[in-house]
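Supplementary Note 3. Input sequence used for the single-chain structure prediction.
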Amino acid sequence: MQIKESSKEYDAVIVGSGAGGGMTAKVLADAGLNIAIIEAGPYFDPADKNMRTQLRGTWESPRRGAGTLRSFGDFHAGLSGWQIPGEPYDTVGDTEFQWWRTRMLGGRTNHWGRISLRFGPDDFHRKDIDGLGENWPIRYEDIAPYYDKVDKLVGVFGTNENLPNDPDSFFLPPPKPRLHELYTTEAGKKVGIPMIPGRLSMVTKKINEDRGVCFYCGQCSRACSVYADFSAGTCLIFPAMKGKGQIDLFTNCMAREVITDASGKATAISYISKDDRREYQVKGKVIVLAASACETARLLFNSKAPGMTAGLGNGSGTLGRYLHDSTGTGTSALIPSLLDRELYNEDGVGGMHVYAPWWGNNKKLDFPRGYHLEVWGGLGMPSYGFGGQLTRVQEMLGYKVGGYGNPMLKEVKQMYGAVVGMSGRGESVALYDNYCEINPGKVDEWGIPTLRFHYKWTDHERLQAKHMHVSIREILTAMGGELFEPEIPSYESDHGLLAPGAIIHEVGTARMHDDPKQGVCDRNSRLHEVPNVYVTDAASFTSQADKNPTWTIMALAWRAADHILSERQKMNI
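The predicted structure, written as discrete structure tokens, is reproduced below.
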């Protein structure tokens, strides 16, 4: 098959347009470089009336809001999801790994929860603290200046609380707690679990001329038409396209492999156009992989160079290894004191106004690491799937189960806003035996070899999940709540842990390490063995934390972009 090669050579070719790819493109383009971005999905701009899903009514959908290609409903901004037709993956044995992929400009940042937390000083050297896993080759002090830059560029609301491992920041004003969050905060005080204002990347006051201010529609998962919430396309790539450099977008293009020359230097990215199903190459002086942790690992596995037959940059044998996702579980309760509550507009942002950062002392507990608690409930606009617990509430209140018409509508109005839930999101320990690899003989519809996954939870994660349930139940019970699940899920059911991958925080498949025999990337997010290839997604993480990874992805991407500029100045690239 003929491969069409472009004669143009870009300063950098970036695979992926999400948090890492978008930030890398922004920094390099602002410095005057010519950039190519290869994105596996279509162009997307939530301000375009033909693409807008924000403030659309369920009656505008032929499925009344239910989704077909969108896992969370027709108007969810995330195209694709857990399963993509023609793009399979497999699991081995009793592995239940779930792999979410978002094929569109901006990637997962179009629909994420926008919980924007810095890693803390302890999170970079956990091995020193509990003897498990591996320390990062960098420390908080190395990345703190980049967190500062991300905060100021993107915008994040919150409050400074002087918490040692939940660093203070440059915060925008947070929204006021809603009624169910006030209840939760007071209950937390009773049981010794402190709640503080949430830290989310929605703009609550004007920060520049490119972005509007949040108007509390509560539909951030639909992508914001005024760019008030953070998405990589709207807040990084679009502004960068107006700057000193040049950005060319290659959308609907599925990256196949990194092309190298006889010396092992990367020279191009090969991709399949989904529009004409032909293979192309786009040349670059620097190659940046930011396609998501597992997709980047797949791309490296499918790339070869002289002496690198097990995958590009895989001399350590750790490519695909140390894959880990956040832990996650939770439950909810009916709060009788919130029944028949006064109804008023309480939408707020599309996420939590308060949360509980990790408060525990692991020396007194039977598991390592920690977690945070997220709060949900209130009077937000009903979405597709609303009413799923209606019959359970009817049982609790002694009502006749079921119904229709005006009697059921009356009961729904009585109950709405009286259900409050909490979810825990925690850190798992990175293990060599949790990994992804190429599935021999299997390819997707583009002819690209696919992945298979090996993953097991350990007692570290199971016991952490049990503690999450204990903590959540204490708070909900202190609110006077009647739990929907009175019993904590059993050990045999992993204490209710969601399947690995389900939280969509997977990291670590090309981890950074100072020793080339122990990791794929160096401390600057660059491949040890191919110095003009950088990884700016979560594949480079040495470990996760009890925080969401997006803020650290962007901070590391900015840091890596600065390193690229420095190496260019030294004529090393």
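The chain has ten helices and 18 strands. The mean pLDDT is 95.
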